[in-house]
Amino acid sequence: MYTMENNFKMVAKTLFGFEELLAKELTQLGAQDVKIGIRNVSFTGDKGFMYKANLALRTAIKILKPIETFKVKDEKDLYDKIYKMSWDKYLKPSGTLAVDATINSTVFTHSLYIAQKTKDAVVDKFRDTTGERPNVDLKFPDLKINVHIDREICHISLDSSGDSLHKRGYKTATNIAPINEVLAAGLVMLSGWDGQSDFMDPMCGSGTILAEAAMIACNIPPNLMRKEFAFERWSDWDVELFEKIEGSLLSKTRDFHYKIMGYDKSPSAVTKAIDNVKNAHLDEFITIKHEDFFKTQKAGDNKLHMVFNPPYGERLDIDMEEFYKDIGDTLKQSYPGTDAWFITSNLDALKHVGLRPSRKIHLVNAKLEARLVKYVMYEGSKKAKFNDY
After folding, report:
1. DSSP secondary structure, 283-295, as one string
2. Lower CB density within 10 Å: C or N end of the chain?
3. Which pTM does this prediction carry?
């Protein structure tokens, strides 16, 4: 019904603080005209690259294909301009659609209302021109439309991903506050993990950081297990091209010769993490044990790379000062030769770790200000003292 240009502009959305990581991923995949924005990176590529980006990007939440940009004065103006667009290029009258909207504007203040207005304009256009109207399907629409209004500029895009790309497909079991897969992958990448040492998550919850670390180490595309991408319902869906791209990505996986270990003191978390790792077909690389990190010691003399997401005060009834002091004490006394990274939104509690971080990276986690901090634990007790206040 419609053909895409050879190369076209796309926008990959991401989390705050991951823009440079995503730009680097895109460049390495072969994207052109890569430009960093706030929580997004724009680039150009062809249809095959759009498939590849959805399959292979670890820090992208969505891949959008912009189709129209215009100025908008008010709701009527928005409706009229969307109505004028050639929607029959993208959707059949008997098809289904869904709209999501994000707004940063003083004129438009309600994103659900903007989504509704957009849907009305598209549906009315079909009804007026064909006598038939598409229906709304929020779960599996044939076309997902993204509306982004920034002050008076409106961008209309096709959402090629569908569900957020953090929904990798391997997680069936989660805990109270599971870490988002895109956030987990980004933390591991920011920590500089390259698969060339042992890796540990000592508070592993449902195993997300472990799974993402294993996929990074083995260069496994993160979204192989997804049930569906939105572009599979587009009229120019090319299954042969998709399978070729998938095969090419799979041919680039690599061997991993170290250990990935997870601990958690909750037996139910350990069970869930083991299930999720099995679902991801990563159990040959990852070992998960029921352990209290504060009672453990580093095994062997090999260098250890540690990334974790300690519980925040909001979700567990614990003494945060004591808890963070225990983190610092355990690292100092029991984990020599370790680069330890963790993320926290409890910025006051960081003061109680009792170690000086060698790096602090500003991030946002679930709308909370957060820091990813790094502590270097040297071999031998003398060197460890240099990390002390």
Report:
1. TTTEEEEE--GGG
2. C
3. 0.92
In one-letter notation, the amino acid at residue 343 is: I
Render pLDDT for 252-276 as a digit per residue (tens, 0 to 9): 999 999 999 999 999 999 999 999 9
Q: How far apart are CA 302 and CA 16, in angstroms?
A: 34
At 262, give phi and psi (nearest 5°): -130, 140
Distance CA(236)–CA(159), nearest Å, equals 14
Q: Residue 199 pairs with which residues in a beta bridge?
A: 260, 305
Give the angle 224-228-229 at the CA atoms, nearest 5°: 90
User: pLDDT band for position 389 (50/70/90)?
Assistant: very low
- Amino acid symbol at 315: R
pLDDT(1) > 50: no
What is the band of 388 on the pLDDT scale with cuts at 50, 70, 90?
very low
**CA gap 320, 310 in Å, rounded:** 10
Give residue-wise pLDDT tens across range 318-334. 788 899 999 999 999 99
CA 93 – CA 123 distance, rounded (Å): 8
**pLDDT per residue over 286-303, tens digit each?**
999 999 999 999 988 999
The residue written with tokens 């580093």 in the block is 298
Q: Which is nearest to 343 in space by CA: 314, 370, 377?
A: 370
CA distance 85 to 125: 9
Token code pair at residue 305: 């790379």
Structural contact between residues 147 and 120, judged by C-beta atoms closer than 8 angstroms: no
